[in-house]
Amino acid sequence: MAYKKTTSLNPNLNYRYALILMGLNKNQEAYDKLEEVVKAGKTTPAMAADFKKLYVKVKGSEAGYEAYAASTRKSYLENLSKKLTTDMVSEPAAAFTLTDLDGKQVSLNDYKGKIVILDFWATWCAPCKASFPAMQMAVNKYKDDANVKFLFIHTWEQAANPLQDATNYIKSMKYSFEVLMDTKDAQTKVNKVVSSYNVKGIPAKFVIDGAGNVRFKLTGFDGSNEAAVDELTMMIDMAKGKS
Asked: How do beta strands 148-154 and 115-121 pair?
């Protein structure tokens, strides 16, 4: 009954339901459920492959699939652009200086003129860690773009040795992230940088433009790596002045 109780789109739930329908040979119903995910731009490669199989079963052949897929993606990107245009803000980004995992000091001011993506996270935060494969995809995509910088800020620590805790996790997962440590102030017990960005929950991401203004804010992760990279790419382009 989980599917019927859901009011907003849950890509993984839709997919599981579609797989059940496929097993029952209810291909049209399965197609309809998976098409909701396709139109929302939230398919994984496995979902996309199964949707193509359903398309062939329902339509009788592969004819027209490429045109359908191109049209659907164009519509999705247009809708995403409209949403992000509405979501775009312009607020001064709070300056900070933190140390990385090797003890080197890094300041936001070091990256004036560049697009900077801040990702506030913690090792105990399951959604933070769930978003990291998508963030690694994004980091890989922009690794040769000198004008885009990703900073992963570990905060709200719970471990006694947060530096070792964060280092162990990043190394064990083989992520190529630049991690900065926003540890609690010894006197106030406040994580200063995350507080300066008024973060209420993590993961929290901020896209900062070359003039030092926050242009986009994101909280949470919905589980679709490809959609997350699409959204972040469009945010970066818009922060660069492209649209």
From this structure: parallel
Could you check whether the bond before residue 203 is cis, i.e. omega within 30 degrees of 0? Answer: yes
| pLDDT (tens digit per residue) in 86-123 | 999 999 999 999 999 999 999 999 999 999 999 999 99
Question: How far is residue 192's CA from residue 180's CA, in Å, rounded to a whole number?
Answer: 13
> How far is residue 23's CA from residue 20's CA, in Å, rounded to a whole number?
5
What does the block give as tokens for 84? 């992000």
Chain-centroid distance of CA 15 in Å reads: 20
Domains along the chain with CATH numbers: 2-63 (no CATH), 91-239 (3.40.30.10)
Dist. CA 164–CA 160, nearest whole Å: 9
Question: Which pLDDT score is estimated for 243?
Answer: 53
User: DSSP letter string over the chain?
Assistant: -HHHH--S--HHHHHHHHHHHHHTT-HHHHHHHHHHHHHTT---HHHHHHHHHHHHHHHSSSTTHHHHHHHHHHHHHHHHHHHHHHH---EEPPP-EEEETTS-EEEGGGGTTSEEEEEEE-TT-HHHHHHHHHHHHHHHHTTT-TTEEEEEEE-S--SSSHHHHHHHHHHHHT----EEE-PBPTTT--BHHHHHTT--SSSEEEEE-TTSEEEEEEE---S-HHHHHHHHHHHHHHHTT--
